[in-house]
# Entry
Amino acid sequence: MTEIDILLPRHTRRWQLVLADRLRAAGHDVRLVATSATDAWPALLEAVLAAERRLSHGDGRLSARTDLEAGQALPARPGALRIDLSGRTPASDALSLRFDASPSAAAAAIALAAGRLPDLAVLRGGQLVARAHPMVDSRLIVGRGLEDVLARAVSLLAAVIDGGEAAGEADAEPVSADAPPAGSLAGGLLFATAPRLLRETARRVGHWPSHWRVGYRFHDGRGVAETGSLAGPDWQELPDDGLRYYADPFPFAWQGRSWLFVEEYPHETGKGLISVCEFDGAERPSVPRVVLEQPFHLSYPQVFAFGGELWMLPEGGAGRQLVLYRAAAFPDRWERHVVLVDGRELFDATLLEHEGRFWLFAAERDGAGSTSDMLVAFHADRLEGPWRPHRANPILIDRAAARPGGAFVRVGRRIVHPVQDGTLGYGGGLGLADLLRLDEEAVEFSQPVPLLQANNWAYPKIHTLNRAGRLEVIDGIAEVRRRAPSRAAAA
# Structure
């Protein structure tokens, strides 16, 4: 147990109290210490956030001002670890948080209004301790984007205290002691946020918010994981009816036949299912049919063989369980076999067998915020578990490197992992990262290298890459116009 004093400004924000509760839950002795610092946010920003909260009934947002109750604020303790969130220049021995080099979270909101993605850094005595690059899922509403950033501020500070986030050393970063000017916020809202919101609103009148297309090709040559490029034989599109899309393709070769498992997402229901199609001798796909459905969203159906059985590990983060399914009658009937990880929101969990052990990598939604920026790992001696979280969790917080985008690929002595790049938005791109170190003490990946585009695939924003035998698959976002189901289809 560590004694921790959190130094707060006169007007606290809910995220700061959430951090205190998080550290207490981890067993630390946490004390809130009020200071005379103001950390005043621009009046325009307060007005914008208040209006957004009223429209969305979001009084519980992390950015909301929250006054300390009587008795909550206590005197500082000599010798306690200090986290200075007051917004003032911190003492040299205190941990402090920077939002784009500013001690005020208002800087993150101003960056979001201008269309930029803010970064986070934890400093001690001017030295960089840890950094994070939060994913921002909503880039149209400033308050929603700020929620994503503040949620990962909590994650980052908690990880630093518990030793999870990999620490690094760097020269002191420039720090602004003043709150950002309100004028820059007004300019961002007027010239960046408002046009983005109008364009997207107009687009959604006639188009689905997102619609994925699966691409496939059969070939014997080197694949995308080897070349780093989509070039090569032409990609063919898996047809859909425009009322649903297919995404997250995982091919599987079995008994001389080629199958493709996908997420099927009917726009009308807004809930993902797992479907499968088979390719005939002429390499033509059948119409996908549903093979697994749950009350919550399913996707990312990693199918594999092990121990004489066929298995599926789909994403079911909304159900707060990572469940392993066994094929009772391949490929149409799957039975729930065992819960690998319980009580956590894990997304796109990807299995790797390495040096006699099993490893899982997934993006985790840590209480709030995005599902695409925090990488965690688990390991086990047996497929069925028990699975133990890695001691270095979270491995990283990075919108361009955290969320898996396909199965691991062995390229010679290299182990390559496709990872999603959310810099341009969810599904905005894919990179390839080499696994450099994997043991119970540490996990290390190289910086992802973005895939090179080619003119044989019409949709440059992709987020899945897989291959099984001669069958290689990807997916990409398409612009598809809305249309209502026909009466015959509805009947």
Q: What stands out?
A: The chain has two domains: 3-204, 209-490.
